Amino acid sequence: MVEHPLKQRFVLDTSVFITEEIREDDEDLEAAVDRLLDLVARAKLELNISCYIPPSVYEELTEMLADRDVDDEIISKLNTWVIKKNPDRFEVSIPAEIVFRFIDEMSDRVNRGLRVSEKAVRKVEDSRDKPLDEHEYMTEIDKVISDLRQEYRTTLRRGVLDSREDFDLLILARELDAGVVTEDTGIIAWAEDFGLRYLKGRDFPALLQKYLEATDGTNTPR
C-alpha cells in the first residue's frame, strides 16, 4: 500500500461512543458504535489516521458498553482499531500557569459548594418533616437533600477535570500532538488551555467520512 501523506492522530473519549448525537435515524447504540469503528478502520487503512484511547478510558467505555448489552464483536473491533496507550505522565510537562488556574478554580468551586450547602441547611430549618403531596414517601427534608446533591454535583463537577480518565485523555493528546474528540464540555475547556486541537464527538464520524471522500472519489458512505 502506498503511504498516504495525510497523517493525523486523535484521542477518543468515552462520550464519543455513548452520545446519541452520533446516531443516524433509527440507529441504536450498537449500530452507531459499529459504524463509527468501521470509519475508524477505513481511515487507518486508507489515510493512516490513528485513533488512541488511554486504558483508564477504555475500561470505563467497555464497562458502559457491556452494561448496554453491546455485542462482544463490537468490543473486538474496538480492540483492533483503537490503540490503547498509557500517557507518559513522567515526561509530559504541564505549564505552571495551568496548574495555578486549576487550583484557583477548585478553591472557588469549594466555596460555591459551601454556599449551596448553607442554602440547603436554611431550607431544612424552614421545612417541616411531613410528606410531600406528590411523593408520599418523601418528606420536605428528603426533597431538600435530593436537590442539594444535584446542585452540589453540578457546582463542583461541571466544566472541570474531575477524574483520572479526563486527565489521562489530555496528557496523552499532548504527548502525541493529537486532537481530542469528546462531548464533555469540561474536557473541551481544558483542551483549549492545553493548546490542543479538539472536536466534538458528534462531528467525528462526518469528519472521517469527508476525509475518505476527499481523497478517493470511489469511497461512498456506508
Keywords summarizing the entry:
Rossmann fold; alpha/beta; 5 strands; 222 residues; globular; 2 domains; 59% helix
Protein described:
The protein has two domains: 9-91 and 164-219, 5'-nuclease (Rossmann fold, 3-Layer(aba) Sandwich), CATH 3.40.50; 96-157. It has helices spanning 14-18, 29-47, 55-67, 72-81, 96-126, 140-157, 164-176, 185-193, 204-215; strands at residues 9-12, 50-53, 82-84, 179-182, 198-200. Helix 2 packs parallel to helix 4, helix 2 (29-47) packs parallel to helix 9 and helix 5 runs antiparallel to helix 6 (140-157). It is α/β, with parallel strands linked by helices and 222 residues long. The model is unreliable at 218-222 (pLDDT under 50). It is built from nine helices and five strands.
What's the gist of this structure?
With 222 residues, the protein is α/β, with parallel strands linked by helices. The protein is built from nine helices and five strands.
Q: What's the CATH C level of the largest domain? A: Alpha Beta
Shape: globular
Q: Strand-and-helix sequence, N→C?
A: EHHEHHEHHHEHEH
Residues in helices, as a percent range:
55-70%
Compute the average pLDDT: 81
Which residue ranges are poorly predicted, with pLDDT under 50 across at least 5 consecutive positions? 218-222
What fraction of the residues are assigned to beta strands by DSSP?
Answer: 5-15%
Numbering strands along the chain, what is their spatial order in the largest sheet?
A: 3-2-1-4-5
Summing up helix and strand content along with how strands pair, one would put the structural category as alpha/beta
Number of helical regions: 9
Largest sheet: 5 strands, parallel
Distance between the termini: 22 Å
Write down how many β-strands occur, each being a DSSP E stretch of 2 or more residues: 5
| Total number of domains | 2
What is the radius of gyration computed over CA atoms, rounded to a whole number of angstroms?
22 Å
Relevant CATH superfamily of the largest domain: 5'-nuclease
Stated plainly, the CATH topology of the largest domain is called Rossmann fold
Q: From the coordinates shown, what is the CATH architecture of the largest domain?
A: 3-Layer(aba) Sandwich
Pfam families: PIN_5
Protein name: RNA-free ribonuclease P
InterPro entries: RNA_free_RNase_P
GO biological process, one term: tRNA 5'-leader removal
